[in-house]
Amino acid sequence: MNEIGKIKGARSVATQDRLNKFLKDASLFYGPDPDIMEYHGLEKRSDMEDVAIKNENDPARMSIVSDRIQAGLDEAFEMLANIGIAPGAKWGDMSTAVYTASGDLTQASTGGVVIFSNLVQYSTKFINKYWIDDPTVGVNEGDAFLHNDARYGTPHNADQALHLPLFHEGKLIAWIGAVIHEGECGAKEPGGIPSSAETIWDEGLKLSPTKVAENYELKRDIVTFLQNSVREPKLQYGDMKAKLYVCCRIEKRMKETIAEFGVDAVLAAMRLNLENTETEVRKRISEWPDGTVRHVCFADHTLRESAMIKINLALHKKGDKLIFDYRGSSPEFTNRANNSLTITVKGLLSQLFLSYIWPDLPRNQAVLAPMDFVFDEKSVLKPTIGTPNAQSMMTLFHSWTAAQLCVSKFIFSLPDKYTRFIAPWYAMINTFQYGGLTQHGEIVGNICADINGMGGGAFADRDGQHSMAPFFATMADIGEQEFIEEELPFIQVVSKKLMKDNQSFGKYRGGMGYQMVVAMRGSNAFGFMLTAQGSKVPNTMGLFGGYACHAYPLCKITGVDVFETFQNRPDEFKYSIQELMNEQPFEGANYSTHAMALQYDFAKEGEMYMIAQGTGGSYGDALERDPEMVMKDMEEDLISHDVAWRIYKVVYDKRNLTVDVEATEAARKAEREDRINRSMPFDDFVEDWVTDTPPANIPYYGSWDDNEIVYAGSPDIKGKIEDLDPIIMPDPKDVRIQALEQELAALSKENPTT
Amino acid sequence: MKIHITESLRIDLDQERWECSKCDTSLGNAREPYKKGLNVYDRDPREVHAALLDQDKYEYSFAPDPTWIRILEYYCPHCGTQMEVEYLPPGHPPTIDIEFDLDALKKQWADRKELPNPVIAPIGEIS
Fold it and tell me: Which of A138, A717, A744, A745 has the most CB atoms around it within 10 Å of its CB?
């Protein structure tokens, strides 16, 4: 709570304390606290930690204690993967962690999503601030607290975090946490990330940090309330139990560590882990050049309609500090769910550093301590508190890609690297969400593990890895499809097959993405959703002259039952999206393409929904790609003859793929000469190219040539972000109805008798 | 002292010049944006990311929409190496992406040895 009544110099400390207590006691509602949510640094070292560090500070001993804690966290992570029920728990969309008594994340599990534990630290601070001294709540040994509302500290409401306080001799000395992407949370669409949410009340469960267990027992009345609020009551109960049990296991390991090394050693190890990490991060940032690197990214959809949504980043580095300045990005959308929270942007950027820049560092929140963040208020990255954010990933991921590109340009020159230099990883969730009644009569709502099939970025000396992992969890799995099909009423009729020519082209190409064709089978009430952007504008950029990934649509074939085809005319089926869509093998069927943003859509048996996973960014000039690597891609059926010539300018014998070295060199030389001839010097180009405003035919959101002036869908609607009216988008169905009515009116006017 | 800034871009700290590291051509004053020394071409994105589906049949084809996004290709004016690409909506000002403090860079590299090639992995991991 802020010191609302504070008047400088007007009251004694005692009076101010009494006033603060009165205001706290009289508060109507403990909403998300800006003082907590806007601070990502470390809390001050406590007296308890200070004493512990005076008693215990031998680096070797601290390292042993930290390793012991880490072993407990990794054991608990494995346990959670085995007993958790959510699909996310099966393939790594989770995390376990330990926090200091003040709530700072000090160690997280080696596997899983570090952003989870790096965000839910905010909720422990909320509990410390509001519940610990509240006689109606309190914090006691054996209590557990649960929350899912992103505004109190989760990436989005589909994630649920459970925290257990660790007591020693009656004193709170640490917090323990477990987080899973549970999926279903009772929103207006199944699966936990509703793209059609227009208000926060459409987003389902809004659980603030709430005591759900006492004496290590879940409170059944609370559990029942939560089960009653979501579509998957079994999932809700089962994973609350799973998280409580793994937190108990971590508590057991922590107590064993205390018994062996003493409480001071554990307290000192937890605190020094944070302080030493911050010191090391500052040292590493100091190695970078001073200066500024900029990048702009564009999201092309709100998930309800097409829109050009700018994410603008200037990354400043001076001395041992970084400043991420996202001003000039798009204004917030009042009734769309694509707004990100600042904590989510920051948490995801911690993942950037801990996975792609300094993966040797301990996984804790101190990595962000030397970094500052600047956002426009009311922007899509810092929306007002009541703005929906269920699809935060739609702007969050672009802010991450911009950051990865900027960081890469800062660090390429450095003589010391802490991991292999890499181009941007594919960053968008090209996967199906689903919901409805299963073949076993259960109601479900969740997401396919294919989210983890993102292609890796190219390296500076080799190609990226195909369908490797999600960029936010480098140690994740895509699950066993056969197991999934036993539980859910749909089949992947084409599964995990790399898509030809779906490649980012460069000296080294990005890892490619696979295609998937799904069809519902065995339910009369089941549907799919898609929540991805990039059908008009590529999502993930290349590096240093390398190209981006392709654009990715949704393809559908309706009016056909593919299972009936398999039964009676199996030869008709084709095993790739290109063949199915271009050859149209099913007579009488309807073939269509769409943006990869599909609101919940009831599926009919055997109709096909088809998408491709994305490709990681490429590295360097495509004309420098070793012709033999191009031939290897040909051999593996990854690219066509068209790409080998049109992009890579390789001349070869098509019968045996033998490269004609001289002819290739000549073709590449000719292309380089052509580049020089068809281009113009930068200043001349700018004069010719740059326009005063965004194009009128594109609904454009964000700054253009001045970060202080942003546009809101039209060249005519612009101003300082704080002065703009709220952006309230019409329902796309209303837009469609209006267009049809106008068409009907025009036809009626032309032919009054009809 | 020459510093590798990107795959094909160097700074000659002594001369304070940008250089193409593929052909050694000087690309201009290192206190100004390196892009000023390059040639630029506005490319239809469909020429690179060609449609994978029949565009006569479908609105979306796996190719970007050229009315929404263009590729700015930046070439060395001497050797034609593609040094950078930028995906921008038509008419959007190009980004001045790299702006380093040259004096601070000189101080930083005063204690470092010149690198013949960029370092792309931790020592001992380069194969």
Answer: A717
Best of B11, B49, B79 to disrupt the A interface (most A CBs within 10 Å) is B49
Q: Quote the pLDDT of residue A598.
A: 94
Per-position DSSP letters for A608-673, written without gaps between them? EEEEEPPPPP-BS-GGGS-HHHHHHHHHTTSS-HHHHHHTT---EETTTTEE-HHHHHHHHHHHHH
Q: Look at residues A161, A86, A85 and name the one whose alpha carbon lies nearest to residue A446.
A: A86
Closest Cβ opposite residue B49 in set A550, A581, A682: A550
For residues A601 and A531, the answer to whether their CB atoms sit within 8 Å is no
Three-state DSSP state, A83: helix
- Substitution target in A358, A675, A692 with the highest count of B β-carbons within 10 Å is A675
pLDDT more than 70, % of chain A: 98
The ranges assigned to domains in chain A are 1-30, 36-283, 290-419, 422-626, 682-723
b/e map A513-541, b = 16+ CB within 10 Å: bbbbbbbbbbbeebbbbbbbbbbbbbbbb
One-letter amino acid identity for A317? K
- Model pLDDT for residues B37-81, shown as the tens digit of each residue: 999 999 999 999 999 999 999 999 999 999 999 999 999 999 999
Q: How far apart are CA A387 and CA A210, in angstroms?
A: 22
* A200-235 tens-digit pLDDT: 999 999 999 999 999 999 999 999 999 999 999 999
Q: Which of B85, B105, B112 lies nearest to residue A415, judging by beta carbons?
A: B112
CA distance B109 to chain A (A): 10
Which residues, other chains included, contact A243 with Cβ-Cβ below 8 Å and sequence gap of 6+?
A80, A84, A146, A160, A162, A178, A179, A180
Whether A544 and B84 lie within 8 Å, measured CB to CB: yes
Nearest-Cα distance to chain A for B52, in Å, is 6
Distance CA A79, CA A654 (A): 53
> Which pTM does this prediction carry?
0.95
Nearest CB to B89: which of A293, A550, A695?
A695
Give the H/E segment covering residue A241: helix A233-261
